[in-house]
Amino acid sequence: MAKNDPYAALRFREFNIFLLLRFALVFGWSMQFVVIEWQVYALTEDPLSLGIIGLCEFLPAFFLAPFAGHIADKKEKRNLFALCIGLFSLISFGLFWLTSERIESSWETRTILYGIYGLVFFGGVLRAFFGPTIFSLIALIVPKRVYPNAATWSSSTWKGANVFGALCGGFLIAWIGVHYTLGLIFVLVMIALLLVFQISRKPILNKDSGESIKESLRAGISFVFNDKVILGALTLDMIAVLFGGAVAIFAVFAKDILDAGPKGFGILNAALSSGSIITMLATTYIPITKGTGKKLLVSVFGFGVCMIIFGASKLMWLSVLALFFSGVFDGISMVVRQTILQLKTPDEMRGRVGAVNSMFVGSSNELGALESGIAARIFGAPLAVVLGGTVTLIIVAIIGVKNIPLRELDLQEDIATHEQKET
Fold it and tell me: Which GO CC annotations does the UniProt entry carry (predicted)?
C-alpha cells in the first residue's frame, strides 16, 4: 500500500470548492438551528416545543428519503445540489422575515411559532435530498483510492462548520439578536449557491434501466439491510444520536441547569463538535482503517459514557469537558461510517444508499430531538440524558456481540484493492 497522503483529496480543485461551499452551508445551517432552538424556547419556555421542532424536520426527511435517493441516482448531481441550496435560501429568508420587529409586534406568538414550524418542515423536505445528493457528488469529484481521505476532510469540514456555527450562533444572539443573525445566515447560503456552480456537471452513472420507482427503492433498501457491516454501522450511529444525543435540549441545560445564558448555550453546542473536528483532522495523518470495526464499537460506547457524565453534571466546566470528549468519540465513528459507505457502495446505488443513511442517521437527529424533548418533560433534562446514554451502552454491547462481520471489519484490504485498480 502506498504511503498515506493526508492531503490526497485536497489535490483536486473541485473537492476544495466543495469543502468551501459545504462549510458555508453547514455553518449557516448550524447557526440557524441554534437560533431557532433558542427563539422557540424563549417564546414557549417548554422543552417539548424543542422536540416538536425535531418532529417537524424528521417527518418529511425520513419518509421522503427513499424517493430522494431514487431521484439522486437518476439526475445530474451538481444541478440537483444547486436546486436544494436555492430552495434552502428561501427558508433562511423566511425565518429572517418572520423574526423582524414588525412581524413580532403585529402577529400573535402562536402564529409566529407555527410559521417557524412550517419553515422547519420545508427544511426537512430539503434534508431528504441533501444527504443522498452530497454523498453521490463526493464520489464523482475524487477517485476511489482517496475516498477515505475525502470522507475525513468532508466530515471534518461538516463538524468544523458545526463548531463555529453553534459557537457564533450563541454569541450572535447576545450581540446582534435573533433577527440579524438569521440575516447573516441567508448571506452564507447565497455564497454557497454561487460556489456550487464552480463545480462542473457530472455524468449520471445510473442510466434509466426501465425499473420502476418501487423496484429502485426496494433494491437500495435491500442492499443496505443485506450487508451486515453497513447495517451495523448505520444502526450504531442512529442509536447514539437517537438515545445518546442531547443537542435539542442544550437550551434547557444552558438556561435552567447551568445558568450559562445564550453564550453558554453556544459553548455547549460547540464543545461537542470541537472534539469531533480535532479527532477528524488527526485521522488524516493517522488513518483508522486497521481494526475498523472494533474502533467503531469503542467510539460509540465512549460517546454514551460521556453523555451520561454530561447529564449528571451541574458544573459548566465538567459539562463542557464531557461534551468535548463525546465529540472526540463521535468524530471517530463518523469518519469510520462514511469510509465504510463510500468504499462498499456501488456507484449506481450511491443516491439510494445515501438516502438510507439519511433515514438512519440524519433523520435520527430530528427524532432524537423529539425523544429528548418528551423525556425531558417526563423525567427532567438531566435524568433524560443519563437514561439515553445508558440505553446507548446496552445496544452497543449487543451489536458488538451479535454482529461479527462488523466487529472483525478491517478496511485496509479494500483500500489496497482500489489502489491497484486505479494505478
Answer: plasma membrane
3-state secondary structure of 16: helix
The CA-atom distances, in angstroms, between 292 and each of 231, 406, 408, 411, 412 are 15, 8, 8, 6, 9
Residues near 114 by Cβ (< 8 Å), separated by ≥ 6? none
Distance CA 81, CA 362 (A): 17
Render pLDDT for 159-190 as a digit per residue (tens, 0 to 9): 778 778 877 888 898 899 999 999 999 999 99
Are 64 and 122 spatial neighbours (Cβ–Cβ below 8 Å)?
Answer: no
Cα separation, 275 vs 292, in Å, equals 20
Contact partners, residue 231, CB within 8 Å, separation at least 6:
224, 225
Grid cell at residue 63:
419518509
Is 10-198+212-422 a domain of CATH 1.20.1250.20? yes
Dist. CA 19–CA 53, nearest whole Å: 28
Distance between CA atoms of 306 and 393, rounded to whole angstroms?
11
Centre a 10 Å sphere on the Cβ of residue 379 and count the other Cβ atoms it contains.
14
Please list, in sequence order, all residues whose beta carbon lies within 8 angstroms of the beta carbon of residue 314, skipping any fewer than 6 positions away: 257, 258
- SS3 string, 38-93, reads HHHHHHHCCHHHHHHHHHHHHHHHHHHHHHHHHHHHHCCHHHHHHHHHHHHHHHHH
Q: What is the pTM of this model?
A: 0.76
Neighbours of 119 (CB within 10 A): 21
Give the Å distances, CA to CA, from 73 to 154, 202, 230, 350. 20, 12, 19, 7
- Going 220 to 154 to 144 to 197, the CA torsion angle's sign is positive
CA nearest to 366, candidates 50, 27, 31: 50
> Quick one: which of 156, 162, 161 has its CA closest to 335?
156
Q: What grid cell was written down for 100?
A: 423582524
Give the model confidence (pLDDT) of 82-113 as tens digits: 999 999 999 999 999 999 888 877 888 889 99
- In terms of Cα–Cα distance, which of 395, 64, 391, 50 is closest to 251? 50
For 147, the grid coordinates are 475516498
Burial label for 263, CB within 10 Å (0-12, 13-18, 19+), is middle
> Domain boundaries in the chain?
10-198+212-422
